[in-house]
Description:
Blueprint lengths: L1 H22 L5 H23 L10 H27 L2 H9 L1 H12 L6 H18 L12 H23 L5 H22 L11 H27 L2 H8 L2 H13 L5 H16 L3
Amino acid sequence: MWILFAFGSALFAGLTSILAKCGIKKTDSTVATAIRTIVVLLFSWLMVFVVGSQGTISEITGKTLLFLVLSGLATGASWLCYFKALQLGDVNKVVPIDKSSTVLTILMAAICLNESVSLTRGVGVVLIAIGTFLMIEKKQSSGETKSAAWLWYALGSAVFASLTAILGKIGISGVESNLGTAIRTAVVLLMSWAMVFVTGKQGELKLIPKNELGFICVSGLATGGSWLCYYKALQDGPASVVVPIDKLSILVTVLFSYLVFHERLTKKSALGLAGIVAGTLLMLL
């Protein structure tokens, strides 16, 4: 059953990238992240009350709460980097780098969680790494002169996303997954709004176009759905398998980036995408 939740996470995560990109054409990415987090927070706490896990809050241990908070901080940092990278670069360039967190997560899961890495999984890791590299090397479209700053933000997103998975796996071991997600989201909310005020961008809230605000909110709902599926899958399944499945969201992202933004893959990038998918499927064996 956890595999279905993992694939659900991938679907919603892929939609999140496209919806978020539509919502940050003119809106500052940090402000957009803070607004999205409000939607995710409301959605996650709604699910807590739907499943009736709010009564177990008092049962959460100090260790579990600590790792949930740390996971939330890592998520917040990953989000801020990811959506800044999306604002500066093409979806087809940013997403593959963010998905490279799979390789780091698998290595960290082996070291920190003692999850075994078989020969098949090892080959899968290599294919994912090679495929990611090929997609990163995607040529710029004609006339494009964007700064390479997006690359550093995308790399930061990948590193923090890896930490999120490992810390989240530890943190949800003693708490119902929906409740764990809601607590983590509250941490992300505080962090993202702190960044808005620290950078002095609160004045830009009044300047957000209505259509972009709509996309930001809907992307928040997609994120909420992805998170709930992701942490339910993490709670029941191994992180070294759940994370790669979640990263298959790149297929959804590539499809919609072509349909919505007309971003095309080169032959080299398509080969890289095939490598990532093949490596991910090997991780399921």
